[in-house]
Model the fold of this input.
Amino acid sequence: MIKPIIFISLVSLTYLIFIPSGTVLAFDINPFKEYQGGTELVQTFEQPAAEIVVSSIINPVHEELTIKSLFLVRDRHMPGFDLIDDDLIKKVIRGVRWNDDPLNFLPDNPRQWLLNFEHASKIADRINENFDLFYRSHHADLQFLHAMASNEEESAQFTRDAIMSWIEFTYKVSSGYIPIHTPFRQLQKFLTPKSNALFKKYFTQQGRRLNWTPAYLFSLKCNREVTLPSTFYELDCSQTNWLVDKKDIQNIALGSLLHVIQDSFSDSHVTRNPDYDGNYSLIHGRSAIQTFNTYKKQSIRLHRGADSYPHDMDKPPMQNGFNLEEVSAEIISYVLSDRAWPKHKNRHAMVSTKLKEGIFHLLDPNAVAGSGKYK
Ligand SMILES: [Zn+2]
Done:
């Protein structure tokens, strides 16, 4: 764990060197640490220079929430628990970082991660579907990957539909219902019509990415030289074939699903009932959604406060309301037990209904994207 005092001083430095606009990051990650068993991550890569570390890649919050959830499945012997080993944990952690780093710049190219991020911040208003996933995930139309609205007019129903379509896609890839080498052009055979329409809108409209597959999507490994202010080279994804194992792809897809669930408990991303004072997140005893929030209506500095460790990270779950690790554990258990062959099942529809009645229940489907306490 990073000592809070160090974190605070680094955070204030962030705003001296790096002020993005319309960007979304969410709970922090630390890709320079690796899972090697037990409950802690171990520093295995050289920690990069301070200005890179401060840009939200410092506290392994997503990673630790993931370990907590996987351990709950294992400790409670929930169905599918026997599939959880160190290798699965490592790959699910890789997946929980994917939403923040869909081109796998990290941990090898931290400086390029940051420079691309800064460049995307500068041109946020011009980013469209032709841009790569890294640009779109943080600054444009794919902010549902972080349980946030992408623009100021978006309704809660719209944001939730996008989130649920991503959860459907990742659930079905992770459970094995969608084979990992399925070209995107054939996904309509596997997705519900609504999710298929949304997937098309975000990924394949106008003939884009039709030959991409889940295996390709989740193993992208790219780099791109950016020398600010203006030099900006082509994306180089020649290292993408690093990952071929079916299970690895499925586990990364599971991590990406968990990332969205986790971010939906970030108080700056989603305003949930019941209300409380203070700019921090809680993962226990939370209830239905008032608004999905949008970065465009928020103060970046305030938003960041809710993305460090949740205040109740080390407290036990509560009796009333939803607890992040329990909701996550239930999904993990469904996914892993759906993988079992020959009893192979697809219980996505049931999981989706549970989520819509549970953590993604909307108090007002027409509520417009908000700012929460982070204006
Ligand atoms: Zn996120």
